[in-house]
Amino acid sequence: MGKGEGENQTSITEFILLGFGNVPELQVLLLLLPVIYVVTVAGNILIIVLVASDQHLHTPMYFFLGNLSCLETCYISTILPRLLASLLTGNRTISLSCNDTNLVILVSFILCSIEVLSTFILTVTSYISIITTILRIPSTTGRKKAFSTCSSHLMVVTIFFGTLIIVYMLPDVAVLRDLNKALSVFYTVLTPLANPLIYSLRNREVKEAMRKVIQTMRHSQKFRWIDR
C-alpha cells in the first residue's frame, strides 16, 4: 500500500484464477479427466505402433493418421496436465489484468472469427464434396458404408467447431460463462480421444494389424513359458 497526492494506491502483484470452484456440478469432470487422458494416450500410441510395425499400413493415409496420433499425444500431454492443475478461463484473466478490456476482446473476437470461420468453411466445403461423391456411388451398400464413416467424422468436426464457436465467438455473458468452462474441456479433451476411435481403430486394416500384434505377443509368451 502506497500513498501519493492524498490518495491511497494499491499495487497488485498477483491474483488467483478460479476454474470450476464455483461450479460444483462440473467438478465431476476432475474424476474423468485422468481416465480420459490415459485412454487417449494409450489409443494414439497404439495407432503409432501399429502403423510403424505393419508393412501393410505403410501408405500415405496411415502415415497421415500416425502423424495425427503423434500430434494428439503431444497435444493432450501438454495441455491436460496443466488443465488438471489449474482449470483456468481466459476472460477472467483479461478482466483482471487490463483496465479497459473492450479493445482486447474486439481484437480477440476478430482473430478468432477469421481463424475459426475460415477453417470451418473449408471443412464444410470438403464434406459437401465428399457427400456429393458418395451420392454418385451406384451400390446402396457402398453408400451406406461411406455415409457411416462420414457421419462419424462429422460428429468429431461438430464437437470441435461447435464448442469453439460457442466459447470464442459468442458474447461473454454470465449465463454462458460456466457453460464455456465445460465446453473448453470438451474440445480440448474429447477430440483427441475420438480421433483414434473413429479414424483408425474402426478400419479393417488397422483391426487386422492389431490382431497380428496380439497373436505375435501370445506366441512370444507361449515360447517363453515353454523355455522355462
What does this structure look like?
- The protein is mainly α and 228 residues long.
- The chain contains seven helices and two strands.
- Helix 1 runs parallel beside helix 6.
- The longest helix is centred in the middle third of the chain and has 34 residues.
- The N terminus is likely disordered.
In short:
The chain is mostly helical and 228 residues long.
Beta strand count: 2
Strand content: under 5%
- Give average pLDDT, whole number: 76
Report the sheet with the most strands, covering strand number, pairing sense and barrel closure: 2 strands, antiparallel
Count of DSSP-assigned helices: 7
Q: How big is the Rg?
A: 24 Å
Kindly state the percentage of residues in helix: over 70%
Coarse shape: flat
**Helix and strand string, N-terminal first?**
EEHHHHHHH
**First CA to last CA: what distance?**
75 Å
Question: How are the strands ordered across the major sheet?
Answer: 1-2
State the secondary-structure class. Answer: mainly alpha
Top keywords for this entry?
disordered N terminus; mainly alpha; 228 residues; 3% strand; two-stranded antiparallel ribbon
Helix and strand layout, with pairings?
Layout: E1 2-4, E2 7-9, H1 29-53, H2 60-86, H3 90-97, H4 102-135, H5 140-169, H6 174-200, H7 204-227
Antiparallel strand pairs: 1-2
